[in-house]
Amino acid sequence: MTSVGTPPLPVRITKSLLGYGVIAGPIYVIVAAAQMATRDGFDPTRHAVSQLANGDWGWIQIANFLVVGAMTIAAAVGIRRALGRGRTPVWASGLLGAYGVGLVVAGIFRADPSDGFPPGTPSGMGEVSWHGMVHFTVAGLAFVCLVAACFVMAACFARTGERGWAWFSRIAGAYFGLSFLAMMSGSGAAILAFTAAVVLVWAWLSAVSVKLYRGA
């Protein structure tokens, strides 16, 4: 029995799941930024955040991937429940959930140390290990799913006449995808641009989760 003023259980479950989408991004960004600022030898113009999973303190970034990945999967379920029935909500939820799974796998199979990080690692890219190859492959697929999720959510918002949210979703997805392709060049500016893109898409997920949370 539900008391007066208390939302029904299904609504409370949906809001709880969406709550993970609100906090996932801030947790990931804060934890990663703290490591970038304090880990010896890390240079944001030369090293990817994934490389923080190496070294004595690498367990922090591994935990960051695992926890935030699980939160993203929960948020994906919440988005599906909040958007209701239909093929588009199913695709949006599935793609975002796949991105969350990719984060979890990225935490299990860490990226290779390279280019002087952690300290003591030789300069240059070095040889790619099997777990480094798994990490890179899964990350690429997860990023494709995230970009697709942004555009599918844009279609959901466009269908309901919410043009501002639709454009926000398109811009976040397009910038993330383009910056990831640019990062493969290895230039410092491209790496920084991708870091900014990561912050943008996490902000997008938080904002969308807040919007759907309020409307649930």
What does this structure look like?
With 216 residues, this protein is mostly helical. Helix content is 73%, strand content 0%. The chain has 6 helices and no strands. Helix 1 packs antiparallel against helix 6, helix 2 packs antiparallel against helix 3 and helix 5 runs antiparallel to helix 6. The longest helix is centred in the first third of the chain and has 30 residues. The radius of gyration is 18 Å and the shape is elongated. The two termini are 20 Å apart. The model has no long low-confidence stretch (mean pLDDT 92).
Give the overall average pLDDT.
Answer: 92
In total, the number of strands is 0
- Binned strand content: under 5%
| Cα-based radius of gyration, to the nearest Å | 18 Å
| Main sheet properties | none
Q: Percent helix among the residues?
A: over 70%
SSE order: HHHHHH
The low-confidence runs, each spanning 5 or more residues with pLDDT under 50, are: none
Anisotropy-based shape: elongated
User: Treating each run of at least 4 consecutive H or I residues as one helix, how many helices?
Assistant: 6
Distance between the amino and carboxyl termini: 20 Å
Decide which structural class fits the backbone: mainly alpha
